[in-house]
């Protein structure tokens, strides 16, 4: 098999070739490694190779839904026993953190028979919507190497879009599956709170806002892997009812006639590009042609207030994580990026009362979405406010850095997060990606579907949010959209 043939298959397609003995897993891995050797120096998608382990596994008898399919895991919360893990940070890279366990999500992927051959690039601790960690360098977008692949699952998205693998591990705490899916032209589903596991080291992440799944080229790969992942474990704090039938079977059925609300305005009052508006308008017309009802409307939620509550929780959680790493591994501030130190300083000043108030607000937003979904089946927005930014375009301004350093030295960095400055900080941080946090805060399932490429050949996804536990509705619609406007041929346009 040549790469030109390999890239035309999704994960289930390659697994079928293996199960019918048309190809051996070792041959598939060889193709993946050859492609990696050719293009990863340009992409910087894979940062920690696992090539020897992969060759050994590929030589063994494989079984499962994705038996023999080359795979990659994200270098964040997807621990693989005996493999160096950095979370995108110099702190863990420097101390050579090597876990002595597999994350449960990794175990469930391994049970499908995949062959994992590397860990993918991610921003430091996943705290940004771009992948440019100082520890490893920027991850480039296969559609245009001058642009970023997004974050925090940027390395996985870049690798899938470039054809290194058909599927790869990803995670989403504020949009980190849907953002890189949008920027790299992939299908990306964030499951409902509690759908996939977080053990053994955690019972949940960020009150269930963060969930793990994959990035894929096809809907059926995402559905099949969700079948393998879903369900609680011993450590699970949140437990969700299992679907009545397999997602792989559900997508064989056309969705009912859906009533879908759409909105293209930024919930935090920031600019939305013409590309993002055109992407949603195109999707709305496609939905109407398929018989669905599309209405311009939005939930009665103060988007800026929700964003503030999101970043308050996010920064506070990160502050705790940074403190734990310092304690366990002897790391100092010099081992973290300046932005990370500043965010942790903001988070450390959040009082218990403020934190609980924020979580109470999360409940209010969930209630408002429940009310909204009494009228609509789904909510459609752009996945991102624009196509992927260029590398270096989303960065702390040079003039701000000495101010931040000075305030940190005085222990006053949290002053930047007071009063109106909070709003500016929220808008600066989330202006590129203002649409995704709603689903994380409310624990709702959401997906980015690749239906639009601009005149420069850069993709931009359409985001759909569904009621709690209704991944089935999202996947059914995604499969219908994929059939109506197949996007797999687009990957043949990538030239690296």
TrEMBL record:
It comes from the Bacteria. InterPro entries: Amidase, Amidase_CS, Amidase_dom, AS_sf. Residues 27-475 form the Amidase domain. GO terms for molecular function: catalytic activity. Belongs to the amidase family. This is Amidase domain-containing protein.
């Amino acid at each position: 098999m040549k790469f030109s043939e390999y890239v035309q298959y999704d994960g289930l397609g390659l697994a079928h070739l293996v199960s019918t003995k048309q190809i051996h897993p070792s041959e598939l891995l060889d193709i993946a490694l050859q492609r990696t050797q050719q293009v990863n120096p340009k992409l910087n998608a894979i940062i920690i190779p696992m090539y020897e382990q992969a060759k050994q596994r590929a030589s063994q008898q494989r079984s499962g839904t994705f038996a023999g399919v080359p795979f990659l895991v994200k270098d964040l919360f997807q621990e693989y026993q005996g493999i160096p893990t950095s979370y995108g940070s110099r702190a863990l890279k420097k101390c050579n953190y090597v876990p002595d366990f597999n994350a449960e999500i990794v175990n469930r992927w391994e049970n499908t028979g995949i062959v994992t051959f590397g860990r993918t690039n991610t921003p430091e601790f996943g705290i940004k919507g771009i992948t440019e960690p100082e520890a490893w360098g920027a991850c480039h977008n296969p559609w245009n190497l001058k642009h970023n692949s997004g974050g925090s699952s940027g390395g996985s998205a870049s690798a899938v879009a470039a054809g290194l693998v058909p599927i790869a591990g990803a995670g989403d705490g504020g949009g980190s599956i849907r953002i890189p899916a949008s920027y790299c032209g992939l299908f990306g589903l964030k499951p409902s709170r509690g759908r996939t596991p977080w053990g053994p080291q955690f019972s949940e992440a960020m009150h269930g806002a963060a969930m793990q799944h994959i990035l894929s080229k096809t809907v059926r790969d995402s559905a099949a892997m969700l079948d393998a992942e879903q369900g609680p474990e011993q450590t699970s704090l949140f437990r969700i009812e299992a679907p009545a039938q397999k997602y792989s079977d559900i997508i064989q059925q056309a969705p009912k006639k859906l009533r879908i609300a759409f909105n293209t305005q930024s919930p935090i009052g920031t600019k939305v590009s013409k590309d993002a508006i055109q992407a949603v308008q195109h999707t709305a017309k496609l939905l109407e042609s398929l018989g669905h009802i599309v209405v311009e409307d939005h939930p009665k939620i103060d988007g800026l207030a929700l964003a503030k509550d999101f970043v308050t929780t996010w920064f506070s959680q990160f502050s705790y994580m940074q403190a734990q790493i310092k304690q366990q591994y002897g790391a100092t501030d010099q081992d973290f990026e300046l932005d990370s130190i500043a965010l942790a300083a903001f988070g450390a000043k959040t009082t218990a009362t403020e934190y609980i108030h924020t979580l109470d607000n999360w409940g209010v937003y969930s209630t408002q979405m429940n009310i909204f979904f009494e009228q609509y089946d789904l909510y459609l927005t752009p996945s991102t406010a624009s196509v992927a930014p260029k590398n270096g375009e989303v960065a702390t301004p040079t003039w701000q850095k000495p101010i931040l350093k000075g305030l940190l030295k005085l222990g006053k960095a949290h002053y930047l997060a007071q009063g109106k400055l909070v709003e500016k900080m929220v808008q600066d941080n989330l202006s590129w990606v203002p649409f995704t946090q709603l689903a994380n805060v409310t624990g709702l399932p959401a997906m980015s579907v690749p239906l639009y490429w601009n005149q420069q050949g850069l993709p931009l996804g359409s985001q759909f949010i569904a009621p709690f536990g209704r991944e089935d509705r999202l996947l059914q619609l995604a499969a219908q959209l994929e059939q109506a406007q197949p996007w797999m041929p687009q990957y043949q346009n990538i030239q690296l």
